Amino acid sequence: MLCLEPRIGTVLPCRITVLETDDGVVLISMNPLVIAHLFNNDQLNEFSAQMSETILDVMEESTL
Questions:
Q1: Looking at the domain assignment, is residue 1 inside a domain?
Q2: Which of 4, 46, 48, 61 has CA 20 to 30 A from 55's CA?
């Protein structure tokens, strides 16, 4: 499935998808803030902002 459409990894149960391309390795993830805004809930927005920051930290650390 990922071979046909790599972006499908953003909606699978995994939070970060690792793809190998001709240019190297690419990490992709869905932005939790995008989904949170659909529910118009300030607490969810705050939590999603923290979650997004954590995911970005993990992705940055793993590419060092």
A1: no
A2: 4
24 near 16, Cβ under 8 Å? no
Task: Report the alpha-carbon distance of residue 2 to residue 19 in Å, rounded.
Answer: 8
Fill in the DSSP letter of residue 2. T
Count structural domains, the chain. Answer: 1
Task: Please write the tens of the pLDDT for every residue from 26-44.
Answer: 999 989 899 889 999 999 9
Q: Is the pTM of this model over 0.85?
A: no
What is the distance between the alpha carbons of residues 60 and 37, in angstroms, rounded to a whole number? Answer: 25
CA 10 centroid distance within chain = 6
